[in-house]
Design goal:
The complex is a heterotetramer, with 2 copies of chain A (about 375 residues) and 2 copies of chain C (about 425 residues).
Chain A: H1 32-37, E1 41-48, E2 51-56, E3 61-67, E4 72-74, H2 75-89, E5 92-95, E6 101-105, H3 108-120, H4 159-173, E7 184-187, E8 201-206, H5 215-221, H6 224-230, E9 236-242, E10 248-254, H7 264-268, E11 281-286, E12 301-308, H8 315-331, H9 338-345, H10 347-353
Parallel strand pairs in A: 7-8
Antiparallel strand pairs in A: 1-2, 2-3, 3-6, 5-6, 8-11, 9-10, 11-12
Helix pairs in contact in A: 4-8, 9-10
Chain C: H1 7-10, H2 20-33, H3 46-60, E1 80-81, E2 98-102, E3 109-111, H4 112-125, E4 129-132, E5 139-144, H5 146-160, E6 175-176, H6 190-200, H7 202-206, E7 216-219, H8 228-231, E8 234-240, E9 245-246, H9 248-256, H10 276-279, E10 289-292, E11 295-298, H11 308-312, E12 317-318, E13 323-329, E14 343-349, H12 356-372, H13 379-386, H14 388-395, H15 428-434
Parallel strand pairs in C: 6-7, 7-8
Antiparallel strand pairs in C: 1-2, 2-5, 4-5, 8-13, 9-12, 10-11, 13-14
The chains are: A alpha+beta (about 375), C alpha+beta (about 425).
Bound molecules: siroheme (4 copies) and iron/sulfur cluster (8 copies).
Chain lengths: ~375, ~375, ~425, ~425
Amino acid sequence: MAFISSGYDPNEPMKDRISDIGPRKYDEFYPPLVAKNKGKWLYHEILQPGVLVHVAESGDELFTVRCGGARLMSTAHIREICDIAEKYCDGYLRFTTRNNVEFLLDSKDKVDALLKDLEGRKFDGGSYKLPVGGTGSGISNIVHTQGWIHCHTPATDASGTVKATMDVLFDDFKNHRMPAHLRVSMACCLNMCGAVHCSDIAILGYHRKPPMLDHEYLDKMCEIPLAIAACPTAAIRPSKVELADGKTVNSVAVKEERCMFCGNCYTMCPSMPLADAEGDGIVLMVGGKVSNRISAPKFSKVVVAFIPNEMPRWPTMTDTIKRIVEAYSAGANKYERLGEWAERIGWERFFEKCELEFTHHLIDDFRDPAYYTWRQTSQFKF
Amino acid sequence: MAFISSGYDPNEPMKDRISDIGPRKYDEFYPPLVAKNKGKWLYHEILQPGVLVHVAESGDELFTVRCGGARLMSTAHIREICDIAEKYCDGYLRFTTRNNVEFLLDSKDKVDALLKDLEGRKFDGGSYKLPVGGTGSGISNIVHTQGWIHCHTPATDASGTVKATMDVLFDDFKNHRMPAHLRVSMACCLNMCGAVHCSDIAILGYHRKPPMLDHEYLDKMCEIPLAIAACPTAAIRPSKVELADGKTVNSVAVKEERCMFCGNCYTMCPSMPLADAEGDGIVLMVGGKVSNRISAPKFSKVVVAFIPNEMPRWPTMTDTIKRIVEAYSAGANKYERLGEWAERIGWERFFEKCELEFTHHLIDDFRDPAYYTWRQTSQFKF
Amino acid sequence: MAKHETPLLDQLESGPWPSFVSDMKQQAEVRAKNEANTEFQIPTDVVEDLLGVLELSYKHGRTHWKHGGIVGVFGYGGGVIGRYCDQPEQFPGVAHFHTMRVNQPGGKFYKTDYLRELCDLWDFRGSGITNMHGSTGDIVFLGTTTPQLEEIFYELTHKYNQDLGGSGSNLRTPADCVGQARCEYACYDTQDLCYTLTQEYQDELHRPAFPYKFKFKFDGCPNCCVASIARSDISFIGTWKDNIRIDQEAVQAYIGGELAPNAGAHSGRDWGAFDIQKEVIDLCPTNCMWMEGNTLKIDDKECTRCMHCINVMPRALRIGEDRGLSMLVGAKAPILDGAQMGSLLVPFISAEAPYDEIKEVIESIWDWWMEEGKNRERLGELIKRQGFQRLLEATGIKAVPQHVQEPRHNPYIFWKEDEVPGGFTRDINEFRKHHLR
Amino acid sequence: MAKHETPLLDQLESGPWPSFVSDMKQQAEVRAKNEANTEFQIPTDVVEDLLGVLELSYKHGRTHWKHGGIVGVFGYGGGVIGRYCDQPEQFPGVAHFHTMRVNQPGGKFYKTDYLRELCDLWDFRGSGITNMHGSTGDIVFLGTTTPQLEEIFYELTHKYNQDLGGSGSNLRTPADCVGQARCEYACYDTQDLCYTLTQEYQDELHRPAFPYKFKFKFDGCPNCCVASIARSDISFIGTWKDNIRIDQEAVQAYIGGELAPNAGAHSGRDWGAFDIQKEVIDLCPTNCMWMEGNTLKIDDKECTRCMHCINVMPRALRIGEDRGLSMLVGAKAPILDGAQMGSLLVPFISAEAPYDEIKEVIESIWDWWMEEGKNRERLGELIKRQGFQRLLEATGIKAVPQHVQEPRHNPYIFWKEDEVPGGFTRDINEFRKHHLR
Ligand code: SRM
Ligand code: SRM
Ligand code: SRM
Ligand code: SRM
Ligand code: SF4
Ligand code: SF4
Ligand code: SF4
Ligand code: SF4
Ligand code: SF4
Ligand code: SF4
Ligand code: SF4
Ligand code: SF4
């Protein structure tokens, strides 16, 4: 493959350099109906799961067909989406904040044709390419991160855990039977790229072994002071280490009982990897939300301290999630988010109804605020 | 006055020493009706403010007349109380956990006679000796501490602030017009001897100047390391100081901007007094409770950062308290404690209704938990 | 006429509320007259000087008591608080002004003959000024001189069969609510448990062996009339496991208005006719109550025993019969780390004499605190510092959801090496075989 | 047949949800066939090797990517994440596998011709694998080699008038909800504010000058569809000051059942007939709604604009007309100090172009953070460390009760010397005149 230059000249990088131009301006891509009615929408209706209509003061109607997808997308797949958009939407579409695709149409009959078309599109493996749904009181797409596809710190994979989970929750992607929105998010390490800390159900990759110390290279590859400063629990201290060959080098030592495996040291220092087949796995958190509807936003709470990585489909994890979803669906009131439900019935009941075991790991012991999560009242349920 | 020995022999302190015998046993002092019906009470009624009847399974009725009083009591006053108890109660009485006196009677007509009798008893200064009240949804006696009568660390007086406040709240000691219990407590310094940290209204003595350093004596009178360790904000460090006479001594230095005037150093070291006429005064806290009724116990919140000491009657303080009581009484629902009311209407409304100014001092900035008191939602009232 | 002018204090004699100033003045007079011909063992004018020094504090806006001195009675580490005046020349009567803490009887029940004995003793050997009672619960004798301390202790123990209370880094004087003696809500015998533990732990009460003070308080039910949850290192709160007993006729009587809600506690205002839906059912924090026609139903499994409905309708609703108590730990005032309320450690434990189970929990907590606690570190602060898990290990109590209001929201879990398959030690070179640098 | 066996990944092709494995395989095939005759600038089998290395991770339960390397485009500190495989011999196609973050258009609206251009570029110079979109909001080009970075940047800017997004200690790519473009709840123009600030702060976005990353997110109303309150250092949430607009006829239509509650969001289950009392009035968190006969009343002064009633009855209730936004600050993921949500700093600010007031607040926050923030200290952590008061001082905003959920319960107030009459310096000897040692 011959190198083809874009015109960039390495010897004169600044030669007619263009920079700081930002993104393309939003209104370049507005469908005509949006451009015309922006800010003048009156109301909307969800005609069926995945199909919305927004009605403007002008009387105009904008139809939206929302489709799920793996946000890990090939250009081949994107081109197919473009074909569809050109066929039904004059080439207009958008993506949602949860990585769903939205086809924007200007008439109802186009909607029906589009739905039929989408129903037929499947990958060779048999999965749908663009399943319609993700609206209303259902379960939408899972916001997630890189995992083993691209990152250096994951404790699990992202795309795989998401695929396995969405297969189990698929019916509810296409349905509105939940008491309220149920949002599932996934992050492959504590950095939590995404909003897993405030999701109805959060899948979190977690390490359980302190960093290995690559003494021989540590001082060469890392700024030791930065690694030490990175540790939130001050578990790392400088130390001299004698190598097999008798040579002593500057390195670090880790107080293992102080480590909670956040991986922040590794972020700063490649010679402190945490990844381990037995150590790594999944933490499940539930009850978070970000909307300000009725109750204030809530953090998700840790309800399962650890589930091993079971490639390729994580059955223990998906069974547990399914159990939580069904318990919530059976127990919550209309409009009640998972966290609101758990607080109403009390967490002691939540564990009972979801058939989850409560372990000491679930009691907060991180810094002063931990106290506020213990129970300072005689009120409890047996 | 000639010294009269009890029989104790200083040269042989252990000679027929009696120790570790504990208090007198409770049942020595039970009135017959209590001894008989203990654990078999069926229900009670408050016949009028300050007068209770408890009815037992046996049908027996025990009447209680509750009287307020300064818990700073002379033996003369106690003897008078004994006279009354002997006249109406066969010598049986008790004190409540809020320092009220309770006369325990076995028949209704004795109650009426007793009430008439008590009404007539006044000190020469004109105040009642034993006002009847303190029950139900009224304002009971103020739990308080020593103040200038006996302690070394107070930032205000206890007995005086309490007397001034109870004079203002007196009608409500004898009435049941409040929406629920309203408990006022007083502590003369941050040590908070009493439960002011969980009272509907709390009067707290507070210092506002860092400790003075009596360098010349400090090392002689204090364990410097203990004083340093005592400081919750690590504001104190050891330092050598040169005195007027040129002599250098070991002493301490205080980082003033780190001091929040808790007085804990003074508790450990007499050479670090904080007391100051202009610096010392009152902090008002509200909305605490200890009962588990309906809502869990709550801490009181600081709503007035400072009121100067205005001896002998603290008018600014009592006016403010009165305003809070009236706003609560006008706004709260039946059974609603002050803190429950403030949370229901929102603290922004509380300040408005009580005509209190909100200042930056009222925003928590002590350690990590402070974050949880800020507002993490778009929900607020203008 | 008075020994010292007290123009400021005099202004605290007016007004309806009992005036401590008037009472002190009356006491000063009584001592001056001394009709009982008591051979006062401390200055006769002690109360005058007390008024004088207090007036001076009102003038200066500062206390005139020196930092506490260490005085006490032989063999005890507590019970006495030393106090000296910082203006002894001006107020010789209070130059020494120590307090003694006398362990109050359970429920603060008294018979007058006993109270009079205490008064005689205190007039004779002290100022005659007291606190009935101190915040912890003691009878506080306010003000005597050093030589009198042993004499008073000797007479207390020999004549009156009465001991001192606690101070210092000891078990402090335990206190209880009136409980079963006069309250239909009491779930256990607060006085008996309080007394039994006070006797059992006399050594801990009198001889400092703890990192700091330690307090017990006993509430017969969740109404918490002795505020145990706010101010005791171990709070004992009565509760029950079975069902609230309902008398449906009485329920109707409340609905019909024959019975006053909350036993008349709201009589001071016209709140309108009693509305069981609004006033009871809708206020139930767990929404576990409802009316089925004319019968009140309670889903007791969901009830958290907050007492509200029982408080409102004491004649219709009664506490359950399978009773015991909950133990909450760590409550304290703000110094140093910030205030704490008691955190639930033992959801339910039986409270029958001899209370062995309860003692086991107490002692396992003490062992841990005495082992791990720093100087002047309250139990609550130790729990905060080391984590609630350590407390569970120390007491051998299994973690249950009842221990938390909500599970942790940070996933920062400290796994122990033995909990993780393969342990923590790994071979970096083995790892590097699969993962080049 | 495939270059690498992927027995584990193959099991992720079944099941209804779109399979990323199937998609990658299709892409591998497309590249192998190369019907478009693209002169691939990176290995043709890049996707095969990506599948291969991923399969290996499934086998080992560990990632096979090395710690990120520092690569980028000239003059920019962000926009590229360097990545190298730790098994390059086995998987040469992904030996280099850097990502590029391409700043997405507002509201994530696209026209296909533009999308196709991006695809052409990415097939030509990269793996053809993307994320639509990354969690922050960017279009993520997943996987190319170092030499291609500048080429891609050059073509993006010269051919497509498109810039990179943020990474590193920069302003990160701002993101917005769909807002006024397609939502009746939007209280301001999220796309315009997002775009304006993105352009205004291009320098901050591309050239690291901050202690750490900094994020903006724009939600048109309190429903928070872009989750700004959970994951942006400054969260802009639309709100209004005046009254909710009520169409009483439509209210009746909901009550009568002609209109489906919540726009049909609950159609998947029979929840019974709509009950406005139960479903709206009783769920209003401030209890500021009631029915007066057939008219719905709202006491707007007490409304906290939670959106619930509007969400349930979008055809009857509309947001107010005096609109603007609230600014909340400090939201972040748990590393290091624990997660934070945005804390309310500016209750209400107008959101009309050119947004000068808003820029002033932003810049005063940045000045403070750049002055005081430690390396890798997020804004929220700085606020926690120094206290909310410091933030108020830095931004010149007066403390109001809206800033707190509740006032402090610890009385540990740090008074400043100038706030206390007489100041802090005192004369111990003067003091000792009145208070002997
Ligand atoms: C398209 C999208 C905005 C965008 O810019 O892409 C969007 C669009 C709408 N949201 Fe949203 N929300 C979108 C993400 C969110 C998020 C963010 C997230 O999930 O990460 C939230 C916060 C969720 C949370 O609290 O955890 C969110 C919380 C809401 C709520 C509040 C729901 C609640 O019960 O708390 C409403 C109100 C409602 O549903 O009636 C709402 C309402 C709506 C409405 C009805 C607004 C309107 O009138 O058009 C839109 C269609 C609703 C639907 O899907 O049924 N939207 N909405 C996002 C679609 C994501 C997806 O593909 O599934
Ligand atoms: C006598 C005393 C116990 C003692 O051992 O001395 C006592 C006695 C009773 N309390 Fe109490 N409480 C007593 C201090 C308390 C305290 C402690 C305190 O105030 O420091 C509390 C906690 C207050 C708080 O939460 O801050 C307390 C919270 C209650 C409650 C819950 C009230 C609430 O609305 O939260 C009830 C239930 C009720 O009032 O119906 C209650 C109910 C009762 C009953 C009705 C119990 C009964 O059936 O006999 C007693 C008479 C009530 C009355 O006074 O109207 N008692 N009660 C205490 C009297 C103090 C005083 O002189 O005023
Ligand atoms: C006498 C009494 C106040 C009163 O007027 O009633 C009292 C008086 C003192 N307390 Fe207290 N405390 C008294 C009940 C309390 C209570 C309430 C309780 O026990 O229910 C508390 C709050 C609950 C708690 O323990 O947290 C209390 C929390 C403190 C503290 C803060 C301790 C902490 O860990 O937060 C101190 C400071 C210290 O220990 O150094 C303290 C220290 C003191 C000292 C010894 C002053 C000192 O710094 O050494 C006071 C002696 C005053 C004097 O000269 O008489 N006192 N102290 C109370 C004891 C009387 C009795 O035995 O009945
Ligand atoms: C690509 C992306 C995940 C994804 O698959 O979408 C991502 C990927 C990484 N994030 Fe992130 N973060 C991404 C959005 C987020 C978000 C979500 C958001 O921005 O809304 C968060 C949580 C919100 C927040 O900022 O707190 C997030 C919180 C972090 C953190 C923790 C920062 C913190 O202060 O808590 C780190 C650790 C760090 O900065 O060292 C991190 C670090 C990283 C690094 C650079 C790994 C590292 O340790 O250096 C990851 C590179 C992975 C790779 O090789 O591609 N990433 N990261 C997201 C950016 C794509 C985009 O530009 O659209
Ligand atoms: S969550 Fe962790 S592992 Fe996953 S992409 Fe972000 S930084 Fe990488
Ligand atoms: S993983 Fe986290 S806690 Fe453990 S040593 Fe590294 S930085 Fe410290
Ligand atoms: S509150 Fe402070 S000043 Fe008052 S008695 Fe207790 S320790 Fe002394
Ligand atoms: S008063 Fe408190 S904060 Fe100030 S120096 Fe003394 S111990 Fe420290
Ligand atoms: S705490 Fe309960 S049992 Fe004890 S007195 Fe109060 S109401 Fe009665
Ligand atoms: S005790 Fe409280 S929780 Fe239990 S039924 Fe009565 S009101 Fe409800
Ligand atoms: S946040 Fe509000 S304005 Fe934006 S899309 Fe969601 S509902 Fe509409
Ligand atoms: S927006 Fe929320 S708070 Fe306001 S009226 Fe509607 S439901 Fe009530």
